[in-house]
Amino acid sequence: MAVAFFVLYQLSVGEISRSYQQQIQLITQQQRLFNQQMNEDEYLLQFTSQAKQVNNLVLAYENAHETYGNLSRLPTSLATCPAQTTFFVDSANDLRFYIGCITTLTHGRLLVAFDDENLYFLQTQFLRAGILALLLTLGLGLLSGRYLSTQLLSRIKNINDTAKVIQSGDLGARVTVSHRKDEFDLLANYINRMLNQLEDSFHAVSGVTDAIAHDLRTPLGRLRLRLESHLNTLDEAPINESQLQEMLEELDHILTTFSAMLELSRLEHKQTDSHFDTVNINQIAEDVIDLIQPLTQDKQQTLSFIATAQPHIKGDKTLIFRAMFNTLENACKYTGSGGAIELITTTSGFIVKDNGPGIPDEFKDKALQRLFRLESSRTSPGYGLGFPLIKAIAHFHQGKLELQDNHPGLQVDVTLNTRHQGNGLIGTETSD
Amino acid sequence: MRILVVEDDIVTQGFIKKGLTEQGYQVDVASDGQDALFQALEGDYQLIILDRMLPKLDGMTVLNTLRSAQKTLPVLILSALDSVDERVKGLREGGDDYLVKPFAFAELLARVEILIRRQPMAAVQQSTLLQVSDLKMDLLTRQVWRAGREISLQPKEFQILRYLMEHPKQVVTRTLLFEAVWDYDFDPQTNVIDVHVARLRKKVETDDLPPILETIRGVGYRLVEKATS
């Protein structure tokens, strides 16, 4: 800013001042020449007319007798050209500044000076304009800076306010996104997306907590009533071993449901493991068959197994075992005596078919929800967590669970890895 | 047999101590990690039952410190953290067994006995012939005899019986059997193991011979040393 002013000053005021000085020099040289070439009278004539013609300049010539030109007399203490001196001139009660110098000629002394008042006025004007400009720029800068910072602050405040609202418990609050599409909006979008995810998982967790609380309340209430009734009738009928055993079993059932639900929720919200092992699904199927066979044999059910030719898949061995065991156990439980159950492993999962009662179409979706049990199955033991767990395991493996009609019966398709779709059914192995 | 029980919940600690004392064990208790570490390093214990979440020093730190100090005694970890990852972590960092809270005392006792008797059993493992009462098993030829009469068993039945014979007179819980025979780390929560044992029992207990395989209701099974007639 200061440099700009200096340059401007040099180009305007400085230039004028220099041009005045040049003019003084020129006129001085000219007058000296005239003075040398003319006699005194001719020179005086020339000088008087010249002095009348010049503007802004003061010319004065003094010889032994008189002073000619624009001044009544020459100041005494003026420097000899080219050095210049400032002096006052009193003309018609107006005191003015002049800058000039004196040259000694043959018969007298010559003064050439210019009116510094104009230059001074220009300088003052320039300075005034400069300061004004400076102040204006400063003011504008401050104003725009303040405007910008309030703008930025208000947008940061927007984020802070949202954070405060969320902190106070309202998870639905979101950062306002403007239509400017700048970095702040990008940030706001990221924050909102993160909040959406957090809110979803929070609701999921609280949903699960509610579900667990709700489902455990009934059996806990039952147990409490039973204990209370025993306590009330303790005098007439002391509690015996089988009653205690029953209550212990009831409590175990509650604990089992609790663990199962907890595990299910954990599985549902667990990120898919990218470091799955390669497992042999046929081997797992054989282990499952080893475990379940006595159950099917007790019900005179036929359990056949069709193995895939490409049994190696990526997955969690224990979880696949559980999904397969649960599916087969369900089939075994709901298929009547003498029924037929078929286990088919594929390159991407497994299929279990039975010829039992199946699940009506309108309940197929519900069967996959936790704690849902068909009216007809309420009498058999279970937690209503079988299919949800299988589904969660399938999802965990980026796959899916589908229930279909086997005409008659149920067909359960468990896909464990959608990236390896296919159905390479080769080789048949039938047990029992 | 001295056992150190490290548990910060005084009621649980009291029940474990009472139960184990009734079984003839000498039991010392510690309620925080620092005490536990001090007692475990100073005392001569055959087993430590170690809770994971403890004041002052957590269970896993206690276990790590013990293992770094070359203490090789078996450690049974108790924990309310039941995910597979936590179990794996507990076992990988030097625990010998992992029991999730809440647990049945019978399950704890069964596991304690298996851990305590494990070392001498390892020596017995050298033998390829197992015998409990009049029940004999040849591990090489995979033959089984009861009172001199050969019994034909399915592979899984053989494995179940082998595990029971390796732990005679001890209560073996369903979960223990499942883990040992199927080698999958979870609780199947069904009666399927009972069905397997029932089939095994049908084969080893015939009408003319006294029962040898006891069912402990709500807990598991035990092979009795001396069959009563």
From TrEMBL, chain B:
Residues 127-225 form the OmpR/PhoB-type domain. Residues 127-225 bind DNA. The modification 4-aspartylphosphate is found at residue 51. GO terms for biological process: regulation of DNA-templated transcription. InterPro entries: CheY-like_superfamily, OmpR/PhoB-type_DNA-bd, Sig_transdc_resp-reg_receiver, WalR-like, WH-like_DNA-bd_sf. Gene3D superfamilies: 3.40.50.2300, 6.10.250.690, Winged helix-like DNA-binding domain superfamily/Winged helix DNA-binding domain (1.10.10.10). Pfam families: Response_reg, Trans_reg_C. It comes from the Bacteria. One of its GO terms (cellular component) is protein-DNA complex. Residues 2-116 form the Response regulatory domain. The keyword Phosphoprotein applies. One of its GO terms (molecular function) is phosphorelay response regulator activity. The keyword Transcription regulation applies. Keywords: DNA-binding, Phosphoprotein, Transcription, Transcription regulation, Two-component regulatory system. This is Two component transcriptional regulator, winged helix family. It comes from Marinomonas sp. (strain MWYL1).
